[in-house]
C-alpha cells in the first residue's frame, strides 16, 4: 500500500501547531485530534516523537534561527522540528519517501535547514545534545546513523538546489543607451506640472473586540445552573404536593407550638403602634363586620336559617370516612420506605465486598510496579553519582574563579563608596547653607506690617444716596427683623402642636373601640377552636380502633425490627474484622512507611516520564 507521506506530514505539522503542552496532556489531545484522521499510527508516532524529544529538536531549530534562518518566518518552526525528527527514522522511511515529504512542504526552506543541520552535526549540535543526554548514547543512536546517511542527503540537497535554480531563472538586464537631443532657441522649455498632493491616509481604526459585546462564558454557565436548580425545585415541589395529597401527616410538636404562638398574636396580646391610615382602615373594617353581623341577626329574627350547621355536619362525616383511608396510606408508604431501605443496605453489602476484592488486587499490582520502579531508580542514582564525580573537578575550578572575581569586585566597590560618601558630604553642606538663607527670608517676610486705618461705624459713607445710613444702624435694624421672624415661627409651632394633640386623642379613642371588637372576635375564635379539637380527637379514636390500620402498624414494626437486626449484624462483623486485622503498632508503622515510600517513588517516575 503506497502512502502519501507528504499529506500525512502536513497533518502532523498542523497538530503540532495546535498543541499546547501547558494547557493539556499529550494523551488527551491525541484522543480528541485523531478521531477523524486516517493512517493514525504514522501520525501518532511522528507527533508523539516530536513532543517526547522536544528538548533535542529545539536545540537544532533554535541554532538554525540564530544563524542561517534569521530571515525565516517563525510560523514554519514546526516544519523544521518535524523534518529534524524524521531524519532519525530514515532507515524505516527511505530516501525517496523523505524527498517526497520535503518537496510537499517547501524546497527552499528545507534546503537551507538541511544544509545547516548536516554541516554542523559533528560540532555544535553534538556538543549541545551531549550536555542534555549521555554522550555515548548520543553518538551511538543519533550521530552515527545520521553520518551514514550524510552523503546521500548531500546528493539530495544538490538536486534541490538544481530545482530551485530552474524555477527562478535570472532575467537578462537590458541597459538603455542615452540618445542626445538637439538644442533649439525657438522651443520653450515645457512648464513643470505641479504634482497634486495625496490626501493624508487616515489610520485604520481598531475594530471593537468581540469580548465587549459578548457576555462572558461564566454568565451562561451560571444561567444554566440556575435553570437546572429551578427545574429540580419544581420537581421537588410537585413530589411534595403529591405526597401531601396521598398522605395526611400528623402535626409535629413544632407545628403545634407555632399554632399556639399564632393564636396569641392574632388575639392581640401585645400593643402595636399603628399609623393614622392603618387605624382608619381598621375602623372601616370593624364597621363593615358590625353591619354584616346586624344583617345576619335581622335575617334570623325574620325566620331565616343558617346553612353552617348542615355544612359542619357534612364535613364531619366526610372526615370520618376519609381518616382511616389516609391513615392506611401513611402506614403503607412507611412500610414501602422501610423495605426500600432494607434492599438498599443489602446492595451496599454486595458492593462493599466486590470493592474490597478489587482493592486487594490493585494493591498487589501497585506493590509489584513500585518494586520495579525502586530498582530502576537505584540504577539511575548510580549513573548520576558517576556523572557527578566527573563534574566535581570543573566545579572546584569555577568556584576559585568566582572567589577571585568577588575579591576584585569588593575592592572596587569600597573605593567607589568612599568617593560617593565625600561627594554626599559636600552636597549636604551646600544644602544646609541654602536652607539657612531660605529660613532667614521667610522670617523677614513673616514680620507684621502695621497699617493705620481708623473706621467709625456711626458715620455714613458720604456717597450722597437718599436712604444712606451708618453701619451700626443697619445692624440694629437687621437684629430687630430677626427677632420678629422668630416670634412668628414660635406661634406657628404652638398652633401645629395643639392640632396634633387633638388628632392623637381622636385616634386613641378609635383604637380603644377597635381593640374591644378584636377581643370579642378572638374569644369567639377560641371557642370554635376548642370545639374543633374535641371533634378531631373523637375521629382519631375511631381510626385507632380500625382492624386494617392495626395490622399495617404491626407490619411496619416487624420491618423496622428486621432492619435494626441487619444493622447490628453489620456492626458486629466490622468489629470482628478490625480485631483480626489489627497488628502490633510497630508492624502498622512499618507498613505505612513502606506504602509512603512506594507512592513517592511512583510519583517521581511519572514526573520523569512526563
Give the topology, please.
Blueprint: H1 5-18, H2 26-33, H3 40-52, H4 54-66, H5 77-86, H6 90-93, H7 95-105, H8 107-119, H9 121-132, H10 135-167, H11 210-213, H12 217-246, H13 253-267, H14 276-301, H15 308-445, H16 471-544, H17 547-581, H18 585-609
Helix pairs in contact: 1-3, 1-7, 3-5, 4-5, 4-9, 8-9, 8-10, 9-10, 14-16, 15-16, 15-17, 15-18
Region (Disordered): 194-213, 561-595
Biased composition (Basic residues): 568-578
Coiled coil: 328-418, 471-517
User: Tally the helices: what do you get?
Assistant: 18
Gap between N and C termini: 35 Å
Task: Tell me the structural class.
Answer: mainly alpha
CATH architecture of the domain at 5-166: Orthogonal Bundle
Order of helices and strands: HHHHHHHHHHHHHHHHHH
CATH class of the domain at 5-166: Mainly Alpha
Major sheet: size, sense and barrel closure? none
Task: Categorize the overall geometry.
Answer: extended
Given as residue ranges, the uncertain stretches (5+ residues, pLDDT < 50) are 244-251, 583-591
Beta fraction of the residues? under 5%
Your description of this structure?
The protein has 610 residues and is mainly α. Among the domains are: 5-166, Orthogonal Bundle (N-utilizing Substance Protein B Homolog, Chain A), CATH 1.10.940; 326-367 and 503-572, no CATH class. It is built from 18 helices and no strands. The protein has helices at 5-18, 26-33, 40-52, 54-66, 77-86, 90-93, 95-105, 107-119, 121-132, 135-167, 210-213, 217-246, 253-267, 276-301, 308-445, 471-544, 547-581, 585-609. Helix 4 (54-66) packs across helix 5 (77-86), helix 15 packs antiparallel against helix 16 (471-544) and helix 15 (308-445) crosses helix 17. The protein is extended. It starts with a helix and ends with a helix. Mean pLDDT is 76; it is low at 244-251 and 583-591.
Amino acid at each position: 500500500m503506497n502512502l502519501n507521506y507528504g499529506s500525512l506530514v502536513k497533518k502532523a505539522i498542523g497538530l503540532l501547531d495546535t498543541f499546547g503542552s501547558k494547557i493539556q496532556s499529550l494523551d488527551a489531545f491525541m484522543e480528541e485530534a485523531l478521531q477523524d484522521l486516517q493512517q493514525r499510527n504514522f501520525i501518532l508516532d511522528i507527533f508523539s516523537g516530536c513532543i517526547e524529544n522536544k528538548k533535542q529538536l529545539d536545540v537544532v531549530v533554535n541554532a538554525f534561527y540564530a544563524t542561517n534562518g534569521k530571515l525565516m518566518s517563525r510560523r514554519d518552526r514546526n516544519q523544521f522540528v518535524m523534518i529534524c525528527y524524521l531524519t532519525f527514522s530514515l532507515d524505516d522511511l527511505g530516501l525517496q519517501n523523505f524527498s517526497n515529504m520535503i518537496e510537499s512542504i517547501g524546497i527552499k526552506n528545507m534546503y537551507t535547514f538541511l544544509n545547516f543541520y548536516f554541516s554542523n552535526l559533528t560540532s555544535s549540535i553534538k556538543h549541545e545534545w551531549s550536555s542534555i543526554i549521555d554522550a555515548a548514547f548520543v553518538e551511538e543512536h543519533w550521530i552515527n546513523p545520521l553520518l551514514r546517511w550524510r552523503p546521500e542527503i548531500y546528493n539530495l540537497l544538490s538536486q534541490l538546489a538544481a530545482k530551485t535554480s530552474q524555477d527562478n531563472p535570472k532575467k537578462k538586464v537590458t541597459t538603455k543607451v542615452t540618445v542626445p537631443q538637439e538644442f533649439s532657441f525657438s522651443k520653450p522649455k515645457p512648464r513643470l506640472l505641479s504634482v497634486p498632493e495625496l490626501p493624508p491616509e487616515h489610520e485604520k481604526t481598531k475594530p471593537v473586540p468581540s469580548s465587549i459585546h459578548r457576555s462572558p462564558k461564566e454568565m451562561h454557565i451560571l444561567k444554566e445552573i440556575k435553570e437546572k436548580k429551578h427545574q429540580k425545585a419544581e420537581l421537588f415541589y410537585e413530589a411534595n404536593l403529591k405526597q401531601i395529597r396521598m398522605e395526611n401527616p400528623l402535626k409535629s410538636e413544632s407545628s403545634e407550638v407555632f399554632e399556639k404562638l399564632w393564636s396569641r398574636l392574632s388575639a392581640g396580646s401585645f400593643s402595636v403602634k399603628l399609623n393614622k391610615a392603618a387605624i382608619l382602615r381598621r375602623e372601616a373594617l370593624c364597621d363593615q363586620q358590625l353591619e354584616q353581623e346586624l344583617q345576619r341577626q335581622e335575617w334570623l329574627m325574620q325566620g331565616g336559617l343558617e346553612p353552617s350547621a348542615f355544612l359542619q355536619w357534612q364535613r364531619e362525616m366526610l372526615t370520618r370516612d376519609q381518616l382511616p383511608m389516609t391513615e392506611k396510606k401513611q402506614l403503607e408508604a412507611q412500610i414501602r420506605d422501610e423495605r426500600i431501605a432494607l434492599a438498599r443496605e443489602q446492595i451496599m453489602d454486595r458492593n462493599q465486598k466486590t470493592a474490597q476484592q478489587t482493592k486487594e488486587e490493585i494493591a498487589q499490582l501497585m506493590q509489584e510496579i513500585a518494586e520495579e520502579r525502586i530498582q530502576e531508580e537505584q540504577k539511575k542514582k548510580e549513573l548520576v553519582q558517576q556523572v557527578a564525580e566527573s563534574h566535581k573537578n570543573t566545579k572546584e575550578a569555577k568556584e576559585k574563579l568566582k572567589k577571585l572575581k568577588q575579591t576584585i569586585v569588593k575592592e572596587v566597590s569600597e573605593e567607589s563608596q568612599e568617593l560617593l560618601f565625600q561627594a554626599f558630604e559636600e552636597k549636604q553642606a551646600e544644602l544646609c547653607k541654602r536652607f539657612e538663607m531660605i529660613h532667614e527670608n521667610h522670617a523677614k517676610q513673616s514680620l507684621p506690617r502695621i497699617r493705620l486705618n481708623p473706621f467709625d461705624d456711626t458715620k455714613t459713607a458720604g456717597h450722597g444716596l437718599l436712604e444712606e445710613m451708618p453701619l451700626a444702624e443697619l445692624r440694629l435694624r437687621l437684629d430687630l427683623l430677626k427677632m420678629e421672624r422668630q416670634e412668628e415661627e414660635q406661634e406657628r409651632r404652638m398652633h401645629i402642636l395643639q392640632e396634633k394633640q387633638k388628632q392623637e386623642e381622636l385616634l386613641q379613642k378609635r383604637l380603644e373601640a377597635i381593640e374591644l371588637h378584636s377581643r370579642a372576635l378572638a374569644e369567639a375564635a377560641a371557642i370554635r377552636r376548642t370545639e374543633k379539637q374535641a371533634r378531631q380527637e373523637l375521629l382519631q379514636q375511631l381510626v385507632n380502633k380500625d382492624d386494617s390500620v392495626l395490622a399495617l402498624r404491626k407490619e411496619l414494626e416487624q420491618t423496622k425490627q428486621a432492619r435494626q437486626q441487619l444493622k447490628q449484624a453489620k456492626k458486629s462483623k466490622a468489629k470482628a474484622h478490625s480485631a483480626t486485622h489489627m497488628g502490633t503498632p510497630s508492624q502498622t508503622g512499618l507498613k505505612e512507611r513502606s506504602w509512603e515510600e512506594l507512592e513517592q517513588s511512583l510519583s517521581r517516575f511519572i514526573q520523569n516520564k512526563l
